[in-house]
């Protein structure tokens, strides 16, 4: 699956492909949103859940690793520093 093909799919199809083919990398929250990050082939997929709706409201895909910055806060390197 290439990113340009993935982008043209409907929300349900994107979610199914992400759950079946993706590797879960992390999660984060911001306001009323909860985001899950996956790696699908050569791109990243971020599923956006809204806590009030209790379901996926958006799915974004990207290749730029700069967009991973929001997930770096979760990485604990304290054991490496000892």
Give the CA-CA distance, first to last residue. Answer: 41 Å
Strand order of the largest sheet: 1-2-3-4
Radius of gyration: 14 Å
What's the helix-strand series?
A: HHEEEEH
Strand element count: 4
Structural class: alpha+beta
What's the shape? globular
Mean pLDDT: 90
| Helix count, DSSP H or I runs of 4 or more residues | 3
* Unreliable stretches: none
What is the share of helical residues?
Answer: 10-25%
Query: What about the largest sheet?
Result: 4 strands, antiparallel
Proportion of residues in β-strands: 35-45%
Please tell me about this protein's structure:
By secondary structure, the protein is α+β, with helices and mostly antiparallel strands. Helix content is 24%, strand content 39%. The protein is built from three helices and four strands. The longest helix has 11 residues, at 11-21.
Please describe the structure with a list of short key phrases separated by commas or semicolons.
3 helices, four-stranded antiparallel sheet, alpha+beta, 82 residues
Short description:
The protein has 82 residues and is an alpha+beta fold.
Topology, element by element:
Blueprint: H1 3-7, H2 11-21, E1 23-30, E2 33-40, E3 43-50, E4 55-62, H3 78-81
Antiparallel strand pairs: 1-2, 2-3, 3-4
């Amino acid at each position: 699956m290439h990113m340009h093909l993935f982008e043209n799919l409907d929300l349900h199809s994107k979610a199914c492909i992400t759950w079946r083919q993706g590797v879960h990398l992390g999660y984060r929250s911001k306001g009323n949103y909860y985001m899950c990050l996956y790696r699908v082939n050569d791109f990243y997929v971020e599923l956006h859940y809204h806590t009030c709706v209790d379901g996926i409201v958006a799915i974004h895909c990207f290749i730029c690793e700069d967009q991973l910055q929001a997930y770096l806060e979760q990485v604990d390197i304290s054991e490496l520093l000892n």
